[in-house]
Amino acid sequence: MSTSPAPLVKASPLSVGFCNASIVLYTLWLLIPAAQTAGGAIAGVLIVGLFGLGLLLDTAYLKAHWTDLLLRIAAAAALPLILRFLLHRGTDNFWGYYVQQGMFWYPLLYCGYARGRGDPRLWRFAKAALLLALALTTLTTTFWLVQGMLRGGKVYAYSRSLGNAEPGREAYLKELMLRNIGGYDFIYASMLSLPLTCYAIIRAHGWKRVGFAVFCFAQLIMIALSQYTYALIFAVIILCIQVLAALLRWLVRKIRKRPISVLASMLWVLPLFLGVYLVRVPLVSLAVSLCQQAGLANFAISLSQLLGTMTGQAADVLTRLDYYHLALQGVAQSPLIGALPTMDAPLSQHSDLLDLLSAIGVLGATAFFFLVWRMGRRTLRGLGQSAVKPHLLLQYAALLAFTLLGTVTYSRDISLVLCLGALLILEGERLSMAQQQPQ
After folding, report:
1. What is the rounded CA–CA span in Å between residue 352 and residue 405?
2. For residue 333, how far is the Cα from the chain centroid?
3. pLDDT for 164
4. 246 DSSP 8-state letter
5. Do the beta carbons of residue 434 and residue 120 sit within 8 Å?
6. Of 145, 282, 153, which is closest to residue 219 (Cα–Cα)?
7. What separation in angstroms does the CA of 161 have from each of 144, 165, 312?
8. d(Cα 183, Cα 225) in Å, to the nearest integer?
9. Residue 160, pLDDT score
């Protein structure tokens, strides 16, 4: 007769305190520009070190799961090497990139440990820290972008600012970097957080629902002002799916007098996007015209390039599509193992997924994602029975699309928002269900 393993002894208050402080301080340091600018990278390293110290003090967990923990650490150590040497990510400063990658994977490591432990003390203040940091930086970013638009020709949007230090623009570029209000990282993390914001609107009541709705609107305003084309396109698609699905659920309740699931309602509205695809050329032409009239030059440029691709026009300059074709050539040459034998893969540097397939093929990419899963194992435990499942699936679909069309592995903001958001919601539901069960 088999017996279930005895539950682990709770971690000491000191261990929990170090871990809790680590994830809270990391969230505030990463998402609040003033904290990151003042603290610098060394502050981030020390904050992550608090988690390591707390983990070492959790002797019961180490004794029971030391092999599992070693495998997670090995995965975290191997992934940056794959990205650096096979996908040529990072700069010539190897150790700087390696430390940055360590902080990129830290939220996944933390959430896998926290969900395995199942101790709510480990994330006691994480929800407040995350909401505070997101709200504060969304507002300050919006105000900064509006201020930039009012300064005329001296300022241009994020999407054309970072990395551009042409004569006469150095002062603004320096100011932008000093303010460090997220740029690429925070804008795309906000876009990917929209499904969870919509979930919060659905689940909340009263003033909380109003607050989340206002926050969702603020996120959309900030994304639009940033003039990141992909971010706005994804944000509009995500919001349209959520709104149309909610409208469909309301109609079904009114007409058929019975509810329809959130996932089913989302699947039913997907064919509408096929209709949008069929009229994509006139829609993009209209969008270009509206952006030009509104003074959104960066959107107009990006959408004009997209329109040219759709209509088969030759471009005078290289576009993202040209870079994608480069990586696709590598995939076509060796789809299973990529360029691993020759170590000379054609890379786009604009698509994590295509570059991964070009460099190490389908087999290598499968191994890469296995390591990711191994590092964060248990993070999504209970997702199948969770009410947030449709929203997280939408979030991961957007993440996959963005990984195909952009680069994710540079953005610690994306890693934090996705991992910590899943931890807080899934564990919140688990604890709520446990409290409702009869004693």
Report:
1. 8
2. 31
3. 47
4. H
5. no
6. 145
7. 14, 8, 29
8. 11
9. 45
Residue carrying structure tokens 């076509």: 332
What does the DSSP assignment read for 201-218? HHH--HHHHHHHHHHHHH
Burial class (CB in 10 A: 0-12, 13-18, 19+), 307: middle
- pLDDT at site 33: 77
Distance (Å, whole) CA 370 – CA 376:
10
355 and 403 Cβ atoms separated by less than 8 Å: no
Instruction: Indicate the residue type of 430.
Output: R
Q: In this structure, are residues 429 and 387 in contact, taking their beta carbons and an 8 Å threshold?
A: yes
Give the CA distances from residue 43 to residues 28, 49, 50, 104, 174, in Å, rounded to whole numbers and listed in that order. Answer: 11, 10, 11, 14, 21
Q: What is the pTM for the complete model shown? A: 0.89
pLDDT for 3 equals 46
Q: Which residues of the chain have pLDDT under 50?
A: 1-4, 153-165, 180-182
pLDDT in tens, 242-285: 999 999 999 999 888 888 999 999 999 988 887 877 877 888 88
**172 Rama sector, left if φ>0, alpha if ψ -120 to 50, beta otherwise:** alpha
Q: What are phi and psi of 406, to 5 degrees?
A: -150, -165
Decide: 41 and 99 in contact? Cβ < 8 Å. Answer: yes
Max CA separation in the chain (angstroms): 78
State the CB neighbour count (10 A cutoff) for residue 423.
26
At 173, list the tokens: 């570029």
**Two tokens, residue 31:** 């998402």
Which region, left, alpha or beta, applies to residue 4 given φ > 0 means left and ψ of -120 to 50 means alpha?
beta
Residues 377, 426, 2: CA angle, nearest 5 degrees: 55
Burial of 366 (0-12, 13-18, 19+ CB in 10 A): exposed
pLDDT of residue 37: 73
109-164 pLDDT, tens digit per residue, is 999 999 999 999 999 999 999 999 999 989 888 887 777 666 654 444 444 444 44
Residue 303 pLDDT: 76
Token pair listed for 100? 């940055």
Per-residue pLDDT at 153: 47
In the structure encoding, which two tokens stand for residue 203, read together?
């689940």
Spatial contact of 235 and 220, defined as CB atoms under 8 Å apart: yes
CA distance 439 to 203: 26
What would the DSSP string read from start to end of 110-140? HHHHHHHHT-GGGGTTHHHHHHHHHHHHHHH
